[in-house]
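Could you help me review a protein record that somebody else here produced? My question to you is simply how this chain folds and whether the tokens agree. Thanks in advance; the entry in question is below:
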Amino acid sequence: MQQASLNLIAIGIFGMTMSVLLGPMLNISPAIPALATAGVLSFATLDTLSFQGKGVTLLLDWVAGFAPQHRDRIIRHEAGHFLVAYLLGIPITGYTLTAWEAMKNSQPGLGGVVFDTEKLSPNALEPLEMQLTLERFCTVWMAGIAAENLAYGNVEGGGEDRQKLREALSLWGRSPAECTQKERWATLQAETMIGENQESYQALVEAMKQRTPVEECLQIIQLNCQN
């Protein structure tokens, strides 16, 4: 079951428990919390089985969106992906900053940066070039985590980024220990790149807050990198 659905179920059970305990004091009918909890559990189960947890993700993202820090963290996370991809020469075609935008673009999670992978087709690359391209993507995948850590000193997102890295490395026959080592290496690489390009990164964050088109975001990075 998706973690978001588990969280929602836990919230529902907690709410029912509190309603039962406080119901007599507040004159709340026992049927009300029971029906509410049944509705939450049914929604979470249906969402998990039919929509892979996307409904719960949309709901939780919408609720969390009322907290400015939540949205700011997502923007900084995605700006990390965006900047490092640009610095490593990976073509960028778009980005999303909410679960709804991500779902419309067939992306998982709360947002994401879209790359033009056709320009990096494995069929056109030699084995060494493929390995170097994989290493570039590993660094890009870890860049969101690196950006969060630099900005807040902790990380809340990035689970799907780690999964992408581990799945890709597993296809190359890397062991779990090697995947962990590469993850740490890529995160350090991304932190270094973002730290050395702070002006570009901060300008990009502000631009993404305004939903600036990709082409203009690229120009902003280029301008700040030249200064």
User: Anything to note?
Assistant: DSSP finds ten helices and two strands in the chain. Residues 1-6, 49-53 have pLDDT under 50 and may be disordered.
